[in-house]
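Standup, Tuesday
Yesterday: got the pipeline producing structure tokens again.
Today: sanity-check two examples.
Blockers: none.

Example 1:
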Amino acid sequence: MTFIAVRCPHCQSDQSVKRGKTARGTQRYLCQNTLCTKGSFLLDYCNRGCLPEVKHTIIDMSLNASGVRDTARSLHICPNTVLRELKKKEAVLESVNTAVLRTLNPAEVAWDIERAGEAEMDEMWSFVGNKGNPRWLYAIDHRTGKVLAYVFGRRKDDVFLQLKALLEPFGLTRYYTDHWGAYTRHLDPDMHSPGKQNTQKIERKHLTLRTRIKRLVRKTICFSKSIQMHDLVIGLFVNRYAFGRAV
């Protein structure tokens, strides 16, 4: 008699038991690992879109200059499968770099502020559907190159105020920006230094985004058709590569 070890494809645990069969007659298994986030799984999926490795590839391709239909064609799956998998990530995204905040313990706050109290602030233009519906990406870039927070919205004061509120826990003492009026209206003049000479790093971040994410490339027919997908894909990129989160 031959025994085949059954491992959960999500957590790699071997604590699995049979859990009936699907309508097609395929054996279903249940992972008994309490830390596993999925639970039920199959060893042989008829639909390629259900394979764990395909789901990971969908996210990776979306963050590396591939559109929804590019990903669907390359992986031989339906475009709706790509959209569904991306939308599942929306609930876990964060707008603030909590990894940096966790390092600011009370004993080191004064030293951290002295070392890293300056930030660059800029907005990057994009649009959803057509150019009459612009979508501005507000990003804060730390002096060391770390992104601290981001907000999506129109180029209006209320959106900037949302970003400013997200930045308060960082204890910033200096803001480097361009000459947009919202910065002048809502930032203390003693803490504000307008001018392009100190915003090179955040401009470099914008260029990286436009290079890595297809929907942000200028002078192309590629663009986001919905606000949800626009914000989701860019948020995924920032959370994974700027915040260092496993999303």
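Example 2:
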Amino acid sequence: MLFISIGLNSQNLVEKIAFQSANPFSFHDVITDLENQEKQEVYGNLVIPYDSLNPDKKYPLVLGVAGSLGWKNHHYEYLTMYQNLGFATFELNSFKSRRIESTVGDQTQVTTAAMILDAYRALEILSDHPNIKKDKISITGWSLGGAVTFFSAWIPLKNAINKNLQFASHLAFYPPCFFEPENLEFSDSPIHILIGELDDWTPSDPCNTLVDKLKNKINIDITVYKDSHHGFDRRGGLEINEKGYSFKDCTFKLTEDGYVLMNYLNIPMSNSFLQKIGFLFCTSRGVTIGGNSEARNKSFGFAKDFMIRTIQD
């Protein structure tokens, strides 16, 4: 663990925090063989409200996880909103720590499993920080970061990493839901999904189906924004990303021990080669991404209310 103070202004204390994580490829690697994964140093930026009259004050915290395009302006707008509410924030830098800029079209470079591990290793460090309330740490993320946000609540993964800590809430923006978990045990913390009706990158229908399966078991809900695509909370119009995989025709089984199985063949996609083969059965290239002003305004309002409700005292 390494704490490095990198800035102080009249409102916020900023620290760079580095810690040891690892590079598992799959959920299966985390669940069955975590100790033998290649080690990796990861860092993030912690922003804490600065109170000169009470320097020992503890704050709720929102941990943010970016998507496969990396940290973008609208992500920082959310963090700024949370800071203005009096929350600390933590910008997890899984990509920069591994010298990767984007994983669009090749998410084997930095996997969801590795980023979930990063998030929990960050949670462990932040829980011991003298200015953070350990039981008031929420996680939020977008797209790939939405997958991290959602599946960090999956009990087989969580317990393999840390049985004693959990996030206070999970707010996932347009996550990939096209998985059928054999094990439907998730955290009892509040979980909410925000997704666009017209999303062709990470479609909304599988999210609706998964939430329907889970809502009688756990505290989970979903909001689907009408006439909205992937990245509806960005500024700007629609554009086509030719590299992105469209998963609108995919549903993958997720075994209890963390294997994601190919459609039809039921072969575990246990390495990058097998994953690329598995994607050939159901994906196509080219996805739509772009903002919708109405959905953007609603999602910022929802995110604000969600964090106040789940982690503010």
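Quick observation on example 2: Residues 2-237+292-311 form a domain with the Rossmann fold fold (CATH 3.40.50.1820). The chain is about 30% helix and 30% strand.
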